[in-house]
Amino acid sequence: MSPTAAMLLPMAEGESHFPPDPSLFWQPLVKFGTVDLFGSEMTLAITRPMVVMAITVGLLSWWLVATTRKAAIVPSKGQAGTEAVYNFVRNGVARDMIGSRDFLPFVPFLFTMFVLILFNNWMGIIPPVQMPSMARIGIPIGLTLLVYVVYHWVGVKKHGAIGYFKFMLPGGLPGWIKPFILALEMLTFFVTRPLTLALRLFGNMFAGHLLLVVFIIGGWELFLQGGLLSLVSVPAWIMAFAMTLFEALVQFLQAYVFVLLAASYIGGALVDEH
Amino acid sequence: MTGDISLIGYGLAAIGPAIGVGLIFAAYINGVARQPEAQKILQPIAILGFALAEALAIFALVLYFIRLPGA
């Protein structure tokens, strides 16, 4: 049973609310069967986030092609809109964080990341869908892996495989402290950065989605109670509306933060020796 | 009364990042009020600091959910 359906059922006598467990979040639309992967059984299936992701990729491709196919020096309305988004990523994120010397090769990557994450996040509040695909940890992990590979790759390319580790050490340290700082820096470069990047996006979308569900379904449940409690559902739904607007802001901010941090990691791997 | 004590843990864990986020934006507003032309430089720094502080609260939420079911 889906979590939503479970919450909509009238509660039996003496039954209380339960915290959700992972099984409630696994609702495949189409199941194909199971495969054995590293000793654990995995189900091959199409899920709602996958469908949302496919829809957003299709719409984004259509939008970008339609507004830039007849690109002109004096832009049409659609082209001007696309250019505004592109300029925001190019100048506001890539150039500021990577530096004006070598930011250009990374602009397409960051722009793709930004529009993909932003659109997928907004799918969390766009009415017929209302499913933020970034609220499934697998998708942020995939995006983070791309960023991870890119910033280590450019770092190694610029400083060399051994030079990259030397580069992590700030200069002017006394000799005995160097191993500790190197260990800390390696922890930052290889564990903390990708972990926080993926978990921040996932956690925000997940928490936002839960918040909306709590206010909307909670309001519905109060409404079903009858009597005075029905009246309480009105402020609950007003809160749901206010939180939807707040979520639109948070969702934009998370897409921005993701590309901002990705750009700062790339920029950090590209700076000259300390 | 039934419930889950780890949720109280999450509530406590959210206090620190909340104060941190408040301090960061207070400093950002102060900076812009004193020197409005510095806004463009301060904004990415403020958002970056906000993201780093907020990540801690998000970790607490994620940890609340990934504990073993029934534990």
Automatic annotation (TrEMBL), chain A:
<feature type="transmembrane region" description="Helical">
    <location>
        <begin position="201"/>
        <end position="220"/>
    </location>
</feature>
<comment type="similarity">
    <text>Belongs to the ATPase A chain family.</text>
</comment>
<dbReference type="Pfam" id="PF00119">
    <property type="entry name" value="ATP-synt_A"/>
</dbReference>
<protein>
    <recommendedName>
        <fullName>ATP synthase subunit a</fullName>
    </recommendedName>
</protein>
<dbReference type="InterPro" id="IPR045083">
    <property type="entry name" value="ATP_synth_F0_asu_bact/mt"/>
</dbReference>
<keyword id="KW-0813">Transport</keyword>
<feature type="transmembrane region" description="Helical">
    <location>
        <begin position="134"/>
        <end position="154"/>
    </location>
</feature>
<dbReference type="InterPro" id="IPR023011">
    <property type="entry name" value="ATP_synth_F0_asu_AS"/>
</dbReference>
<keyword id="KW-1133">Transmembrane helix</keyword>
<keyword id="KW-0406">Ion transport</keyword>
<keyword id="KW-0066">ATP synthesis</keyword>
<feature type="transmembrane region" description="Helical">
    <location>
        <begin position="227"/>
        <end position="246"/>
    </location>
</feature>
<dbReference type="InterPro" id="IPR000568">
    <property type="entry name" value="ATP_synth_F0_asu"/>
</dbReference>
<keyword id="KW-0138">CF(0)</keyword>
<feature type="transmembrane region" description="Helical">
    <location>
        <begin position="252"/>
        <end position="271"/>
    </location>
</feature>
<feature type="transmembrane region" description="Helical">
    <location>
        <begin position="46"/>
        <end position="65"/>
    </location>
</feature>
<dbReference type="InterPro" id="IPR035908">
    <property type="entry name" value="F0_ATP_A_sf"/>
</dbReference>
<keyword id="KW-0472">Membrane</keyword>
<feature type="transmembrane region" description="Helical">
    <location>
        <begin position="103"/>
        <end position="122"/>
    </location>
</feature>
<keyword id="KW-1003">Cell membrane</keyword>
<comment type="function">
    <text>Key component of the proton channel; it plays a direct role in the translocation of protons across the membrane.</text>
</comment>
<keyword id="KW-0812">Transmembrane</keyword>
Automatic annotation (TrEMBL), chain B:
<dbReference type="InterPro" id="IPR000454">
    <property type="entry name" value="ATP_synth_F0_csu"/>
</dbReference>
<dbReference type="InterPro" id="IPR035921">
    <property type="entry name" value="F/V-ATP_Csub_sf"/>
</dbReference>
<keyword id="KW-0813">Transport</keyword>
<comment type="function">
    <text>F(1)F(0) ATP synthase produces ATP from ADP in the presence of a proton or sodium gradient. F-type ATPases consist of two structural domains, F(1) containing the extramembraneous catalytic core and F(0) containing the membrane proton channel, linked together by a central stalk and a peripheral stalk. During catalysis, ATP synthesis in the catalytic domain of F(1) is coupled via a rotary mechanism of the central stalk subunits to proton translocation.</text>
</comment>
<protein>
    <recommendedName>
        <fullName>ATP synthase subunit c</fullName>
    </recommendedName>
</protein>
<keyword id="KW-0472">Membrane</keyword>
<dbReference type="InterPro" id="IPR005953">
    <property type="entry name" value="ATP_synth_csu_bac/chlpt"/>
</dbReference>
<dbReference type="InterPro" id="IPR020537">
    <property type="entry name" value="ATP_synth_F0_csu_DDCD_BS"/>
</dbReference>
<feature type="domain" description="V-ATPase proteolipid subunit C-like">
    <location>
        <begin position="8"/>
        <end position="66"/>
    </location>
</feature>
<keyword id="KW-1003">Cell membrane</keyword>
<keyword id="KW-0406">Ion transport</keyword>
<keyword id="KW-0446">Lipid-binding</keyword>
<dbReference type="InterPro" id="IPR002379">
    <property type="entry name" value="ATPase_proteolipid_c-like_dom"/>
</dbReference>
<keyword id="KW-0138">CF(0)</keyword>
<keyword id="KW-0375">Hydrogen ion transport</keyword>
<keyword id="KW-0066">ATP synthesis</keyword>
<comment type="similarity">
    <text>Belongs to the ATPase C chain family.</text>
</comment>
<comment type="function">
    <text>Key component of the F(0) channel; it plays a direct role in translocation across the membrane. A homomeric c-ring of between 10-14 subunits forms the central stalk rotor element with the F(1) delta and epsilon subunits.</text>
</comment>
<dbReference type="Pfam" id="PF00137">
    <property type="entry name" value="ATP-synt_C"/>
</dbReference>
<keyword id="KW-1133">Transmembrane helix</keyword>
<feature type="transmembrane region" description="Helical">
    <location>
        <begin position="41"/>
        <end position="66"/>
    </location>
</feature>
<feature type="site" description="Reversibly protonated during proton transport">
    <location>
        <position position="54"/>
    </location>
</feature>
